[in-house]
Structure to design on (610 residues):
């Protein structure tokens, strides 16, 4: 089972992101379970959502306590909540930022993970460029697809197409594809 | 059709396939997405020949459903928590009048303190009202139970409540096989009422009944639920024959055949318990599970047959009868009444007000049953330190203040200390 925890703020599409990832996994014939952190969501408040992916039925209903991957939609959250709590030593960390992980003072966390498992991607900027609003969720999923290889970009894009109306979907698919290519470029450079 | 879909949406689609004729509901978290979905499907015509009635309260919602049902319509509503309490009088009336209404209950705690999260307090508050109560383990079962619920309700002319864990199921997106219309039509015949308000053939429904016949009316209500003990497995078997999967029934067992220790639970927590059981089995613990689907009628005999060979029965439930303990544990005790050499029953109260029930906590408490059994109810993951502080404060200070606020303040203080 592969478990992903999303951290963001109310209004950033954190819950939608987990749902889209689950749809992408479903489209690849896998079992997936997405669920929100069940709070009273408010704009700007820290929000958590979860997605589990497996090849068999997922029965577990506890919150994800030991994620295989963290997707952090707002880097300011590192100062507010214990974002990295429970992250597995083999895990992945994907942060939405146009700054490097070093500049975000995350060297200690990165050092605990395998090389190439932690990455910052300017998802909000890519979203601004392609969608016209700084909503980083779709772009981060594109980056996630390349970083982890858990799901393919094609499935991510199909899930985005299911979640939004045509025009907004196309723009988000462009953002996801751009983010995927940013990660591909970073991997090639390394 | 297999879909990756929100539980509420899957339930709405399944309810739509049952061809309801009147839907009335008042929004309350966490049930809202279900009736939003239904409202949309009525508007677009995906549900034909159906009226969606906006009402001003939960009391009105069920009252309208009662009127619609008495007039011969297939009627549906949904609610949760305080909403259910607000319609409580109508809940008893629907059952007492014998009207086959189906209601989804998005299980949620009852205040005060106000809390929007999941537990089973709401279902327990009306469990003796005469409604049948079926608990879903997954969103697949939540969808399927609604189809079976209309069949059961209309066969007996008695209302059925489908209990679905709020947020944990209602807001989870997972794989659900949404049935085909033709299959649902074949499984669920058109509603043929046993009593109907029709100007062409006038009757009155709702007579005042005195001591001369009240007991008999109640007895017949009770008798119908004993009939349901036979019908629920029959309808589940028929459902399996048509739809190809196990949903519903009175109860299901998991790895309990040779088990010394058998867990009993209702609702979505059964999945987490199954994973925990697999881990404990791997460590050589003879442990199993009985998932109770039907809480009303309570399957006393079926449960006794499942449990009587065990040495320990652990009832894990998301409800507390204040001043008594666990209501489900109490009912399980009843199933084992007068059984010679009956297993010990251990009561665990867990998941109140949405507290997560984790595998780690389940491992701890299930091992404690064998090593160090307790008297009364065990409260899973109880924060004993904060309780000790509050009790100390209450003993020392007469005007000790509101409990909920005191506890929240202490939690805040504890969090600050742990950061430093």
């Amino acid at each position: 089972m592969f478990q992903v925890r999303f951290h963001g703020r109310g209004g950033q599409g954190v819950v939608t992101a987990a749902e889209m990832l689950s749809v992408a996994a479903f489209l690849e014939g896998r079992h997936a379970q997405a669920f929100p952190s069940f709070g009273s969501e408010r704009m700007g408040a820290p929000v958590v959502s979860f997605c589990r992916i497996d090849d068999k039925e997922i029965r577990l209903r506890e919150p994800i306590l030991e994620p295989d991957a963290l997707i952090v939609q707002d880097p300011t959250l590192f100062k507010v909540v214990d974002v990295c709590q429970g992250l597995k030593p083999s895990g992945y960390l994907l942060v939405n930022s146009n700054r490097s992980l070093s500049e975000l003072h995350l060297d200690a966390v990165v050092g605990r993970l395998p090389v190439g498992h932690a990455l910052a991607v300017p998802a909000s900027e890519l979203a601004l460029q392609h969608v016209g609003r700084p909503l980083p969720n779709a772009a981060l999923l594109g980056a996630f697809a390349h970083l982890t290889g858990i799901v393919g970009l094609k499935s991510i894009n199909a899930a985005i197409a299911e979640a939004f109306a045509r025009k907004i979907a196309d723009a988000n698919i462009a953002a996801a594809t751009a983010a995927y290519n940013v990660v591909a470029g970073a991997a090639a450079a390394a | 059709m297999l879909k990756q879909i929100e539980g509420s949406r899957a339930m709405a689609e399944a309810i739509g396939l049952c061809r309801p004729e009147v839907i009335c509901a008042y929004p309350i978290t966490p049930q809202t997405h279900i009736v939003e979905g239904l409202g949309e499907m009525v508007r677009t015509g995906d549900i034909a020949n159906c009226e969606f009635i906006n009402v001003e309260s939960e009391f009105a919602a069920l009252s309208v459903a009662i009127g619609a049902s008495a007039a011969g319509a297939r009627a549906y509503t949904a609610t949760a928590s305080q909403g259910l309490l607000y319609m409580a009088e109508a809940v008893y009336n629907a059952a007492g009048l014998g009207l086959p209404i189906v209601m989804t209950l998005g299980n949620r705690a009852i205040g005060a303190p106000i809390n929007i999260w999941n537990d089973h307090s709401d279902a327990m508050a009306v469990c003796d009202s005469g409604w049948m109560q079926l608990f879903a383990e997954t969103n697949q079962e939540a969808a399927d139970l609604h189809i079976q619920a209309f069949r059961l309700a209309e066969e007996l002319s008695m209302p059925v409540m489908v209990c679905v864990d709020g947020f944990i199921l209602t807001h989870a997106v997972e794989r659900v096989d949404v049935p085909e219309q033709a299959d649902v039509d074949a499984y669920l015949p058109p509603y043929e009422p046993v009593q109907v308000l029709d100007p062409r053939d006038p009757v009155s429904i709702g007579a005042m009944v005195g001591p001369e016949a009240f007991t008999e009316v109640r007895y017949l209500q009770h008798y119908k639920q004993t009939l349901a003990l036979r019908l629920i497995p029959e309808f589940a078997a028929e459902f399996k024959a048509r739809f190809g999967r196990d949903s519903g029934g009175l109860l299901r067992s998991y790895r309990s055949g040779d088990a010394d220790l058998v867990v009993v639970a209702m609702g979505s927590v059964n999945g987490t318990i199954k994973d925990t059981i697999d881990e404990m089995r791997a460590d050589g613990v003879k442990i199993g599970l009985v998932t109770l689907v039907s809480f009303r009628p309570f399957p006393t005999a079926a449960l006794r047959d499942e449990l009587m060979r065990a040495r320990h029965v652990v009832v894990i439930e998301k409800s507390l009868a204040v001043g008594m303990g666990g209501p489900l544990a109490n009912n399980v005790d009843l199933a084992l009444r007068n059984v010679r050499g009956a297993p010990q029953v251990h009561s665990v109260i867990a998941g109140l007000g949405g507290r997560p029930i984790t595998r780690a906590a389940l491992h701890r408490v299930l091992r404690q049953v064998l090593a160090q059994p307790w008297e009364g109810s065990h409260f899973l993951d109880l924060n004993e330190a904060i309780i000790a502080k509050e009790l100390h404060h209450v003993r020392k200070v007469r005007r000790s203040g509101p409990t909920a606020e005191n506890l929240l303040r202490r939690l805040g203080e504890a969090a600050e200390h742990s950061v430093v």
Chain A has a mean pLDDT of 95. Residues 30 and 55 of chain A are 5 Å apart (CA to CA). The helical segments of chain A are 14-27, 107-112, 123-130, 137-148, 153-163, 166-189. Chain A touches chain B through 21 residues (CB under 8 Å).
